[in-house]
Design goal:
- By secondary structure, the protein is α/β, with parallel strands linked by helices.
- A hairpin with a 7-residue loop joins strand 9 and strand 10.
- Helix 11 packs parallel to helix 12 and helix 13 packs across helix 14.
């Protein structure tokens, strides 16, 4: 009588990790056949409490060598090449190259005798690459001021250029076109008087005729240059006034402290001895920022604790600069909104105290303007002019706005000298203002 074989899970069940119907005890070692009879059965292992435990799910995916006949490959899969999925490693994570196979009369089999000719010329294993320092970017100075200016003014010039191109592409110059152009110029913060003058210059002798966008840009640049040329003046340090006192004023966030640092470096490169005064006593961060700039450019910084009297600090700084022979004294002040009467009165106090030491000081009062504020810059100039007697302007952050035309409107209304403009964070991104370059950049002309 044939021996009943245990009901074991089949090949596919164990391949997919299915549990057997009942826990299976470890398979006994095959019995040694005796001569002239059936194999002698091995004694069953003693039963212990472990039999009551639930069997863990099987993770075996390959057939055991002693798989019974009924649990071997089903007939419908007979002859199939049941090989592991090629292209995946055993963990199922990273793809790998499939192993080469050859076909013999017995079917496909794994080829182990691989030669270099079979694989072709192998690529050398990549050498371990150590992290390298970030490549040095091309110095901004090497790119040239014109390139940095046009890149910084791109948002403003693109806004104007798109409007001009859209208006004058295959279109005659009529009243409606001129009105739309004037609106576009006003929206770019060039100011109403400048916008009207530009449209009049464009329409002169060209009414009801076609005009190319390039011609419009050229006329636009010419009119802007006419407005800006009178105010494009360099900041000249008068060596007869020693120290030459520069008072830096402006609203919060305009960039006063950073501008002081950049100007200090420019003065130092000219061989001038510079001293800084941390007059923004409301912000501890401003005091520390100015100290960092002083260390960077090699300029001493006079500071007091946060909350100290700014006017008294300015007076002490002027005395110290006089004593140590400084050529230039740059005084930082706290940012203040132009519509806050109390803060503006404090600024007036600083000016009065400085004049007690030197009636001619401050020799320059520079208002730092953030170009991103647009038309709000008009009221800033008006109120700071009354409080502190602004002598010149510095326009910063022209690279962060499409409203750079506000500088044209300021020049048209106030006629104050524009000494510097900034188009980036670097020291070299603050440069003396030139009307022609700015006019071409805002009009989107290449050169």
């Amino acid at each position: 009588m044939a021996e009943t074989k245990p009901d074991k899970p089949g090949f596919l069940s164990r391949l997919f990790g299915r549990k057997a119907d009942a826990p299976t005890a470890p398979e006994p070692a095959p019995a040694t056949p005796q001569a002239g009879g059936e194999p002698e059965a091995m004694p069953s292992p003693p039963t212990t409490g472990a039999d009551d435990l639930t069997a863990a799910p099987s993770t075996v995916t390959t057939a055991s060598p002693d798989t019974p006949e009924e649990n071997k490959t089903p007939p419908e899969l007979a002859g199939a090449d049941l090989q592991p999925i090629e292209g995946l490693d055993p963990e199922g994570t990273n793809p790998q190259e499939p192993l080469p196979r050859i076909v013999t009369e017995h079917g496909p089999e794994l080829r182990l005798d691989i030669t270099a000719a079979d694989l072709g010329t192998p690529e050398p294993a990549p050498a371990e690459v150590l992290p390298s320092p970030a490549p040095e970017t091309q110095p901004a100075a090497a790119r040239g001021w014109w390139q940095r200016l046009t890149e910084g003014m791109r948002r403003t010039s693109s806004s104007l250029s798109d409007s001009v191109t859209g208006l004058f592409t295959k279109r005659r110059l009529d009243a409606a076109t001129l009105e739309e152009l004037e609106d576009a110029l006003v929206q770019a913060d060039l100011g109403v008087p400048t916008a009207m003058r530009i449209t009049e210059a464009i329409s002169a002798g060209r009414y009801n005729k076609e005009i190319s966008p390039q011609e419009v840009k050229t006329i636009l640049a010419g009119e802007v240059e006419k407005t800006l040329s009178p105010v494009a003046q360099p900041l000249i340090v008068d060596r007869s006034n020693k120290p030459f006192v520069i008072l830096m004023i402006g609203v919060n966030g305009a960039g006063k402290t950073t501008t002081i640092g950049k100007l200090s470096q420019k003065f130092r490169s000219q061989g001038l001895k510079v001293m800084l005064a941390a007059g923004d006593t409301f912000r501890a961060a401003a005091i520390e920022q100015l100290k960092v700039w002083g260390e960077r450019v090699g300029a001493p910084v006079l500071s007091r604790e946060q909350g100290a009297d700014a006017a008294g600090l300015a007076y002490d700084a002027l005395q110290e600069a006089k004593a140590n022979g400084s050529d230039v004294l740059l005084i930082d002040t706290a940012g203040r909104l132009q519509n806050k009467a109390g803060l503006m009165a404090e600024l007036e106090k600083i000016v009065r105290v400085v004049k007690k030491f030197d009636p001619s000081a401050p020799h320059a009062t520079l208002l730092v303007l953030d170009a991103t504020v647009g038309q709000n810059a008009m009221s800033q100039v008006e109120l700071f002019q009354k409080a502190a007697g602004v002598t010149g302007l510095v326009m910063t952050k022209l690279d962060g706005t499409a409203r750079g035309g506000i500088l044209v409107a300021l020049a048209e209304k106030f006629r104050l000298p524009v000494h510097f403009i900034g188009v980036g964070e670097g020291v070299e991104d603050l440069e003396p203002f030139t009307a022609r370059d700015f006019a071409k950049a805002i009009a989107g002309l290449d050169s």
